Amino acid sequence: MANNEIIEKLKTHLRELFQFDSSDLDFGIYRIMNYKRKEIETFIEQDLIKAVQKEFERYKALNQKELLEKIDEKKKEILKLEKELGEKILKNGEIEEKFKDKPFAKEYLELKKQLEEIELTENIQTQVFNDLYNFFSRYYEDGDFISKKRYSGKHYKYAIPYSGEEVKLHWANYDQYYVKTGEIFKNYEFDQKGHRFIFRTSIVDVPVGNVKGDRRYFVLQEDKPVQIENKTCTINFEYRPLTDNDLKKYPVETKDGKVKETGIKQDKLNPILKDKILSAIKSIEPKTILSETQDNKTLLEKHLLKFTRKITSDFFIHKDLKGFLERELDYFIKTEVFDIETLDTEKEKYLAKHLTRTKVVRNIGRKIIEFLSQIENFQKYLWEKKKFVLKTNYVITIDRIPEDFHKEILENKQQLKEWEELGFGQIKTKKDINAKKLPVDTKYFSEDFKERLLEQIGENGNIDDLLDGVLIKSENWQALNLLLEKYKERVQTIYIDPPFNTGRDFLYKDNYRDSSWITLMFNRAEIAKKILIDKGSIYIHLNEECNYFLREIMNEIFGNHNFINELIWEYRTGGAPAKKGGYAHKHDTILLFSKNIDKFDAGFNKLKERIYYEKSFFTTQQDEEGRYYAEVILRDVIGGEVLVKMDDVLVKISCKPVLNVSKECFHFDTQKPEGLVEILLASCSNPGDYVLDYFLGIGTTVAVAHKLGRKWIGIEMGDFFKEFYYDKGEKKTGVLGRMKEVLNGKGNHEPCGISKEINWQGGGFFKYQYLEQYEDTLHNIDFPEEQRAQRMLKFFDDNAKTEYLMKYLLKFETEGSPSILDIKQFENPFEYKLKIISSGKGEESVKVDLVETFNYLIGLKINKYRFLKENGRKYVFVLGERNNRRTVIVWRPTKDINLAKDKETIDSVLNGYKPDEIFVNGDSFVKGAKVLESEFKALMGV
Length: 942
What we know:
This protein has 942 residues and is α+β, with helices and mostly antiparallel strands.
């Protein structure tokens, strides 16, 4: 048998690859791995060893002891024969040449050969396990496979994939998805025995000279580590690099008792954090609850582990792990297993063994790769699947709502309270309602109210035509992926102001800050390009930390021939603080790309806008606030020229335009002025065009788009999506609150930005939606087909069982999980539920909006809704169009349904409509109806 030490070393590494060290975690992919731990353990402990042994079966012979005994006996026979013949037959254990053809000599030589083969096979088996360990340890780092193509040479350690390009931008995670879920879990909450515990996190910068490395850790906030109010205990963390002072406060010791300064793991800090937290909690009850022990760990320890791992885990998903590892394995074998340079020096009898070693490493390596890639592909499958719409609500100003709703609105205390909080004053009478464009939010009203309102609004025109915009609460790749079918090639302008690559604006994997950020941007720009209309364009707002990366990324996705210009926004005057080298940083960069330069409107729109300057720059014109400005008449971005009117004189400035607009009123650290966004949107879009921002932040893009009469789509995942959010204890207006103020035209912040300049009066209608997130998808995976699989496996031989385990286990056994698609729940489509954890408030059971989800999946333009109760059940009809076809979708519970009466109901609603296609959930007698469930499943990607 091969060397046990190297076998155990390989097994230990495989357990790391399959994340056995995370058995305490019950979320995400860890939960799934824990659920199938037994099967994975069997593969590592038994199947792998069996597979190697099987590969060497043809080299098996008698055991070594028996062979040695037989060789000894044969030697005695030969010595006896030597005496009879009087000649020497054996010399130094070898047969003399003239006796080699004799039967006794052949028998002796065959026994020696078998002994050599046993010894060689043992050695080769040890080498095989060592080869496998060396290979798989190369690419795995902290839960991810990093695609670094390895060379064995001393001078060049890594290679990059290259196809003859003149210039190639490459980064470590280029062939992976960046899973941006960490932001969701910055706040973490759980309930226990009537108490609520909240872990709240701030991302903090530390002066460079004071930190020990770039890696970030969770430590307690110093000034207010714990806050207790009633039965809510808030524990405040900072996520930042460690300082010299931290090493004293959080000492992690080495084996020899010294304090570690590098290579510290968060899991080692958690026990110290636990003690500090418990010391900071003065109230007996919450301290007692957190100190309760189960399975040798306190409740606090368990939640600290989940919390810290949730934010820092699952950052990358490989798009083709199997292909990558198989290509790397082939290269590894050719260069480091079967080294062609040794062929001349090896004896021929050893050559076959090295060929065998090569084949075994390849065959066993591929088995391990198959198993690993099944898990990675399952994550990819869950990431790429279209996500459910969880909740849909509408905000509409009261001037667009029929008067027969006004009394009901006026009696809604929650709505009245929100209006007051937003600064619209106290609303008490119908006169108060009619005097203002008050935004009504359907979330404060019954489902019946929302349905009646939608029906009546639809009488005045098509719903999607009447909507001014859509807000989506979601991680942006997931949102773009769901919106793609509906908005493909419909958006005129994209403006994004993404998190800059500072390490402060987003959480990133240790040592992969640039690569994480590039992957984040690349993944999303790829899909966003598909949403742009052919003549459309995209603005990307950047700073000096990342603009050079983005230029290359956009060149790769859009093509450098579609690059339009680099705009410079000067946002500070000469008094800006100096950075390194004594120079002040005074500007950001805005890159502008077209989707198709041949269809791009090079002349842009004629504007009458203002660009503000310092006193010394060109103009003496001043506005009412004393700011100096020039009026823009025409901007030719391709030529890098601006035609401006200065003191009634037209001047063409042949330089990159400097956009300087001197503050807004939302006090959001990275927000951009409305005047800046106005110039960009007004330049390359017209009223009625779609504008998209998938890094929405505080919502400046959609606020400006709305005021300029553009339709808009905004995507944001942070806490500031809501009406109000808290930043360091201060209550601030979020995206929803801001857009409600925009619709009203007044409030805590309006008129703001460009409102006075364009005489904005308010009014509008938008919907906002919450989407299922990747972590929710993982959380709702179960194994409904497990028992059927176990019964089936009883009839499989060992080879078939191994094949099933390596290729089909996860996909087959999870079929029918709620987040994949539980067709049984379509029996009552209005009660389809998921367990949601992405809110950060623990697990919540939430009804899924299947109606809106399917509308997105088929790319439906929504014209009308019809709601009714008939035959003891609710019906929802969606009337719309897609691909120039009149489309109808019918939803209703199907349990115990009378299909004949059901057909009468459907026919009565659709009388005279004559759709080109109709989808109905469940069975129906409707002529030509398509089965909704099968279409849903296919379009969702499951």
